[in-house]
Amino acid sequence: MSFSVPDFDVGIIGGGPAGSSMGAYLARAGVNCVIFERDIMPRPHVGESLVPSSNRIFKELDFLPKMEEAGFPHKYGAAWTAAHGGSAYDHNFEGLMRNDEADITFAERDQGIGQNYTYHVDRSKFDLLLLQHANEYGAKVVQGVGVKGVDFSDPDAAHIKFTVGKKEMSASCKIVVDASGRRTLIGNQLKWRIQDPIFDQYAIHTWFEDYDRTAMAYRDGMNNFIFIHFLPVTNTWVWQIPITERVTSIGVVTQKKNFAPNKDEREKFFWDCIGSRPPLYNALKASKQIKPFKEEGDYSYAMKQLTGDRVVLVGDAGRFVDPIFSTGVSIALTCSHYAHKDILKALETGNFKRDAFSEYEATIRRGTKNWYNFINVYYRLNVLFTAFIMDPRYRVDVIKLLQGDVYDEAEPAVLTRMRSIVSEVEKNPKHIWHKLLGDLTSNVFAEAATV
Fold it and tell me: Given the DSSP bridges, would you call strands 158-164 and 307-308 parallel, antiparallel or unpaired?
C-alpha cells in the first residue's frame, strides 16, 4: 500500500495490544486512523497471561465473544509457591501468618461484567485477532512497515517516516500514538527513556507439551491457574502459564547478574533453577519441549514524559515494569482506554499540545507507580506478600491490585500498609523477618517509582 497524499487524523506505530486497542477505540468513533505494524502477523510474543481488568476493555470493544470463540484457556486465579522452610515462616507477626503456598480466585471480587475469569493466550493468535478487530471497525492496517522515526518540525502535522521494502515513504497525521512496545521508538528518538535503576530482570522461556500441571498444584481446581514459583536464588522466579490444554509456557526470570554470558550456560541455568523445585523439574523432564529457548532482557524502564505536542505513548512504549503480576497487556489496554478519550477531545478542539493529554498521563503515571511499588513489596519481602494474600483483613484489597485495578487511588491503603511494614522490618535487624528481606530497598524503589 502506498500513500501518495498521506493524511490521517491519527497514526499508530505498532499493532500489538496497545496499538490495536487504540485503533479499535478510535475507528469505532469515526476517526481516520492507520496502524503501522513492523511484522507480518501472526508473530510470537511473550506475555501470555492476562488480568481481569482487561475484560472490561474487551467488553467495551465488543471483543469478549471473539476471546471465547478463540478457545483461550480460562484463567480463574493465581497461585504462588515456595520451597522455603524454617521457623521464621511460622512466626505470627501482627497476626500475619505465612505459608509456603498462597492463591487467589478472581471470583472473590466482582468486576461487574458477569465473568469471574480472564484468559491465558497464545499471543501470536491473540494479537492477530485484536488487530483484525481494529481493522473491522475501520482502522487501516499496514503490516511489514518499518517506521524509522517521526518528524515533528511541521507546525501543522507530524510526519511518520517509514519504509515498505526498500521504498522510503511518509504519512502525515494530526496525532502520533507510539505503541511500538519495548522498542520505544518515540521515547528513544526524543531521549525520554530512562532505564530503571533497580530492576534489571532477564528471562529465559519456552513451551512444553503434555506437562502435568497438577505436579505443582496443592489442591483441586488449579489446573488453569497461573503459577509463580519462588526459587532459592534471590529475586528469581518461574512462571507457569497454560497456553492450550496440552501446551504450557515456562519461564525463569532473574537479575542480570545471574544471567550467563552464553547460550549453553543460560540453558543450564534454566534447568538448574528448575531443579531447585524437584516436582516441577521431574514433570517438565517427563514432558516435551516444543520450542527453542528464547530470552528477554532489559525489562524495566520509565519515560521522562508520556505525551508531548502531537504525540502520546501507550503500553510498553511508555513504561515497562517487571511482569511478575502479568500486567503487560492490561497496562497496554488501559492506556488505550484512557488515552483515546483525550485524543478524541484533542481532535474535536484542535488542541494538539501536550496539555491536551494531561489527564491520560496523570492517570497512567498513578497506576504504574502503584504497580511499581506493589512489585517492590513483592521482591523486598515475599513473606509479607503471601501473608497479606492469605489474611482476611487484606485479602480482597490485594485481589483488587492483582486484578489490575490500580488507577483510581494515589496509593491504595493496603499498599501503604505493606510498605510501612517493609520499612519497619528493614530498620530492625532483630526483626523475625529481617533475614528474609530481598536485596532491593523500598526507599530506592519509592524514589525510582516517582519518575
Answer: unpaired
